Each structure stands twice: as structure tokens, then as C-alpha cells.
Amino acid sequence: MTARPDVTVIVAVYNTMPYLTECLNSLMNQSIGAGRLEVIAVDDGSTDGSGRELDRFAACHPETVTVLHQPNSGGPAAPSNRALDLATGRFVYFVGSDDHLGQEALERLVAYADAHESDVVVGRMVGVNGRYVHQKLYTANAPDISLYDSPLPFTLSNTKLFRRELIEKYRLRFPEDLPVGSDQPFTVEACVRARRISVLADYICYYAVKRGDAGNITYRADHLDRLRCTARIMEHVAGLVPAGPRRDALLARHFTWELSKLLLADFPSLGLDTRRKLCDGLAVLLDAYYTDALRDATGVRRRVRFGLARRGAVDALTRAIEEETAHGAPPFLLEGDRAFALYPGFRDPAVGLDDRTFEVLGETVSGRLAAGTRFESADWEQEGADLRLTVSLRLRVTGDTSSAVVALVQGAMPPSADRPGARRLPRGSGTPRAPGDFGAVAAGDGRHTLLRALVPVPAEQARKGVRVYVTVAGAVYEIPVRTEGLPMPLARRWGEEDPHRVAARPNNKGRLVITTAPLVEHRAGPGTRLWRRLRTKRKRSR
């Protein structure tokens, strides 16, 4: 290669066959052309034939592909650094050796960087085989985005186009002692120092593959390793960005993802010593970086788990995770306009957490009411030209239910259940006496409220399904009405005097889907049994 390439692609390789072959093919087939491309692949002591596959490609493409071999270093950082020292392209692009690129990826990325004088370009990335990739950054092309008020902090892998001049100016390299997340310090610092960051969202540039053997290094690390690596990353961020809203915007990602993942359903199965060490390490990070703004912006589920870990309440934290895994989120306690999640440790003096840790601060807690709602009954009756729904629901709320607002409506999700037709749950108990009335009684276990309502439903709207909306503590929850096995209204209600056939089935959300079609003469004309049956029903209903 005589001319300076536009882009150097760096591939750190360790035991990624057969995925490596597809990765290399995707590089050799790039529309940018071999003359504008340099590939530097570093074999980090592979034992599965990856090194031989690299050598085969280098022999086929000697002007484009350079291969280096080294003893295993334990992660992608060291081979990536070695390749950076040899790179000559105007831009550098990193590719995981089990991933692959869209055919026009490099050509489009380089052109976009040149057009907008970008130091960093983030190309659209998607997951393969169930690999999760955060997508909010890729809603539209964006020539100039901010690291601090965009979803970029949730996309901190190094799989981006970087201007090599920026990398060398600040001597950006990967920390070689981090087995997990070593690309984050590099990417964060590049984005902090970049003059312009752009997003190319209208083309899939990168396909991130979840390997069938779960061999990606992120999936192999244990809890304590992940905690140690996350602590190093957060310390690096804190050294680049002073305390304040900008730092919070970056660290919100680590509280939402890396640290939260340490307190998932597998936490109770860890040894007691490991659980204690995790809580101790989390407490250090929470004390250093978990500001009041971050705490209030964190959902109550994570906020409680962090709070229990910070207090070293290992037993209460273990119970909270076990109970939520087995039974779903706990019920609300309503007190006036405030709602609290009744997790273990709530108002426990031995734990010592304040009420705000357990308070639902305006967020919708996923599944809180819908998953915790039990249908006592949902019965349909014919009422003149319309239908009447009698529904009894057991909601997982307790306490002062007068602050809850309930609506039973048809059609689209309302912005709030507090709307015409909604009813505020009354204090005490009562029984609905007429359609549209509401009654609420406290369940015997003290952890539920029983709601019963009679609601007239216009026949035309029944096809849209019926849902219950509950507003609690400023958040709206939607509860589909179970429809399996409900009696059907007469077909003539949709077909006037012409007989129609009606099919009904619940969809995957439990909502009733009703379809109708006219019965044509050759399928059911006068004299047939079906015609006589429909005519008889029509006469009886008049």
C-alpha cells in the first residue's frame, strides 16, 4: 500500500471461529475499496484456529491486511493498543472479531465525517442472535450531538469511527488491566475531547453478534470483576468531567446498567461473602457519585436495591430480589398523594432508609399494577343495543385509596385516567348499584384494594377492546380486561338486518378481537339451517 488509507480497521482476535470468517469477509467486501482501507488484526494467543484464518486472509490480501500474533493478554485492550501504534489511516474503526459490518459502512462513515468535519461518527448498530443494542441514539441522522444530553452515554463501545489525529493528540489508549469495559474509558475521553460527534442512523453499519457459546468476554466476567471494572470506568469519567449535571448524565448509564446488573435475580444465589463484598463496593460508588438528582431520577426498584446495598442490608436486599423474582413487584402503600413500594426494609429502623427511597416519584413502575392485578370476574351481558361489562379487579394497592383515579374506557391509551368518565375511588366500602357506578373495598390481607364496576359499552366500540386505566401517584397504568370465554353478542348488532358471521378471539395481550363479515347467499342463503337460526334469533331479540 503506497497511498495513505482513509480508514484503518482494527480487529482484536481471540478464539472467535467461525464468526471471524464472516467478520473478515465483511471487511474485504467493503464498498470503500481496498485502496482506501487498511486492516490490522492482532491474534491474542488464539487456540481455535483463528490465527491460521487471519494468516489465510493476509495471504490473499497482502496489500490490505496486516496480522500480528502475540501471547494471550486476557482482553482486547492490549491487542487494540498494539494495532493503534501501527495504524496509518486518517480514521480508525474498531470491529469485534465475532461481529461484522454492512457492505457500505466504512464508505458512508468516512464520507459523513468528512462532510461534517466530525472527530467521532457513530454508525447505526443492531444486535444479532439476541444481542441487546441500545437503539435510542439511532432515530435519525444527526451531524452534531452532545455527549451530555443525548443517548450517547448508553452507547459507549469503541465500535465507532474516530479521527486518528484526535487519538494521537491526546494519546488515547485502552487500559490493559480491565478485562471488561476497557473500551469505555477510551470512548468517553474521545467523545469528551471531540470537536464534533455525529450519528449516521440511516444505514446499518454494524452487526453485533451474541455468540451461541456465550463466549463474548462481557458474558464471562464474574460479579466482582464487573464491579471492579465499573468502578475504574466511573473514576475515569469523574477525572474528565467535574461534578454536576454533565457528570450525572454520563454516570446515569453506569447506575442504570452495569451496577444494576449486579443486583438481578442471580444475586441471592451468590455466596454470602460475595454478596457482602458487592454491597461494600457499591456503597463506595454510591457515596462518591450517587447524587440526589441521580437518586430521584432512578426508578424505585433500582433505588431501593441501591439503598439496601448502601446500608449493607444484605438479608433485606436478598429478600427483596427473591420476592420480586417469585411474585413480581410489591404493592403500593398510598398515603394521600404519595405512593410507596412495600419492599423489605420499608420503615425498618434496623435498615434506616428514608421514605423517599421507597417512594414512587412519578414514574410508571413496569408491571406494578397490571402484573399484580387479579381478575375476580369480567362478565358481559346484552343490554338493549349495547353491552354491559361487570368487572371486579383486585389491585395491588393499599392504604388511602382516595388518591387513586380509575377509568374504564375503550380505544387508545389516555394521557391520564383523570378524565371525563373517570371515578375516584371512595373511602370505605361500597357496592355499585347502576352502570357506571364504582365501589371499592379493602381486601382482607391488607395488601390489595378490590374494585368493582358496571360499565355500559357501545357495541361498535367493543371491537376495540376494553381496558382499565389506573392513575396512582401521577403515573398511568393500563390493565387489559381478560376476555377468554366471554359470551358473544348477537351477530345482527353489526349487520343490521343482514346476517353476519362473527369470530372472536383474545389477542396476545388478553384483549378481545372481534371480526365480522356478511354471510353471502351461496354460503348461507334462505332455506339453510344457519339462515333459519339467524332469522329466529333476530325475531326473538326484537
Description:
- This protein has 542 residues and is of the alpha+beta class.
- 32% of the residues lie in helices and 25% in strands.
- The strands form 5 sheets. Strands 1, 2, 3, 4, 5, 6, 7, 8 and 9 form a 9-stranded mixed beta sheet that branches. The chain has a 4-stranded antiparallel beta sheet with strand order 12-13-18-17. A 4-stranded antiparallel beta sheet has the order 16-15-19-20, with no helix packed on it.
- Strand 21 and strand 22 form a beta hairpin.
- The longest helix is centred in the middle third of the chain and has 18 residues.
- The C terminus is likely disordered.
Structural class: alpha+beta
Number of helices: 18
Taking the sheet with the most strands, its summary is:
9 strands, mixed
What is the distance, rounded to the nearest whole angstrom, between the alpha carbons of the first and last residues?
89 Å
Number of strands: 22
| Rg calc | 30 Å
* Helical amount: 25-40%
Tertiary shape: globular
Summarize the structure.
The chain is of the alpha+beta class and 542 residues long.
Helix-strand blueprint:
Blueprint: E1 7-13, H1 19-28, E2 37-44, H2 50-60, E3 65-70, H3 77-86, E4 91-96, E5 100-101, H4 105-116, E6 120-128, E7 142-145, E8 161-163, H5 164-169, H6 183-193, E9 197-209, H7 217-220, H8 223-240, H9 245-256, H10 272-289, H11 292-297, H12 300-310, H13 314-327, E10 332-335, E11 338-341, H14 355-358, E12 374-383, E13 386-395, E14 397-399, E15 405-410, E16 423-424, E17 438-442, E18 449-457, H15 459-462, E19 466-472, E20 475-480, H16 492-495, E21 500-506, E22 512-518, H17 521-524, H18 529-541
Parallel strand pairs: 1-2, 1-4, 2-3, 6-9, 10-14
Antiparallel strand pairs: 4-8, 5-9, 6-8, 7-9, 10-11, 12-13, 13-18, 15-16, 15-19, 17-18, 19-20, 21-22
Helix pairs in contact: 6-8, 8-9, 8-10, 10-12, 12-13
